[in-house]
Design brief:
Order of helices and strands: HHHEEEEHHHH
Radius of gyration: 39 Å
Strand content: 5-15%
CATH superfamily of the largest domain: f41 fragment of flagellin, N-terminal domain
Distance between the termini: 21 Å
Shape: rod-shaped
Number of strands: 4
Structural class: mainly alpha
Oligomer: single chain
């Protein structure tokens, strides 16, 4: 190998290797300090794109789970009102039965009717109950309005929940029409109230089934979130044990590279001995 002054290939190669080592060392330090394997798109372009989509899916899953839980709370509130309505219907049924007592006079029946009227008014008030400004019951007297609840982060899966047809239960021909101030009216009320209780039981059964279904949907969302987080972790999170090993290796290479660059720079000094 020729002895030259203008070019020091050994020093250039040592500097190149030291520069690469410093870059890798810096990456390793960034990964360990941040806990992330990917700190910029340069680290893993494809992995960055996939991780971004996973992160968005996780956020949407969280939001969807919150919405489903709110829908469950809506149904639970609705069921609480229906449960209270059941108590009122049972009391009206009891009063209608008491009004059939042949030993009761007109004044006694009028007192029973007074309580029935007050209870009917309370049922009417229940029709206007709301959850966060949303009506719990269908006030139009239709078959009950179905509300759509999204149960997947991509919006592809939905579940319907019902605003029960409470208006029909207490409206014309329903509980609001009962008059126990006469014997015949009390008899008719007992017959009708049994049908009303059955209708109310149907409402609660539907409510319970919808709560159950939404609970399973919430469980599925929670499981999906865990799986998405695991998949995202495999892409973006750093393996601390592995990266620590690399850091130690790069530290040694940096020290060795610095020493070799120093040696390479001193190698040309032998030329001075030739010239002296």
């Amino acid at each position: 190998m020729s002895v030259v002054i203008n070019t020091n290939s050994s020093a250039s190669l040592a500097a190149y290797n030291l520069s690469n080592t410093n870059v890798n060392l810096q990456k390793s330090l960034n990964r360990l300090s941040s806990g992330s394997r990917i700190n910029s798109s340069f680290d893993d372009a494809g992995g960055t794109a996939v991780a971004m989509k996973f992160n968005a899916s996780i956020k949407r899953t969280d939001a969807t789970l919150a919405n489903v839980n709110n829908a469950i709370s809506f149904l639970a509130t609705q069921d609480g009102v229906l449960k209270n309505a059941d108590k009122i219907l049972n009391r009206i049924s009891e009063l209608a039965t008491l009004a059939q007592d042949v030993t009761k006079g007109t004044d006694d029946l009028a007192l029973y009717q007074d309580e029935v009227t007050i209870l009917q008014e309370q049922l009417n008030l229940m029709l206007s109950e709301q959850f966060n400004g949303i009506d719990l019951f269908d006030g139009a007297g239709s078959a009950g309005t179905t509300m759509t609840v999204v149960t997947s982060h991509d919006g592809a899966q939905t579940v319907g929940i019902t605003q029960s047809d409470f208006a029909t239960l207490i409206g014309s021909g329903g509980v609001g029409a009962y008059d126990v101030s006469t014997y015949s009216g009390a008899v008719a009320a007992v017959t009708g109230i049994q049908a009303n209780i059955q209708t109310l039981a149907n409402y609660r059964a539907v409510n319970g089934a919808e709560q159950s279904r939404l609970s399973f949907a919430a469980d599925m969302l929670s499981i999906n979130k865990v799986n998405l987080e695991s998949a995202n972790s495999r892409i973006i999170d750093v393996d601390v044990a592995d990266e620590s090993t690399k850091l130690a290796r790069f530290n040694i290479l940096q020290q060795a590279g610095t020493a070799m660059l120093s040696q390479a720079n001193q190698s040309t000094q032998s030329i001075l001995r030739l010239l002296s």
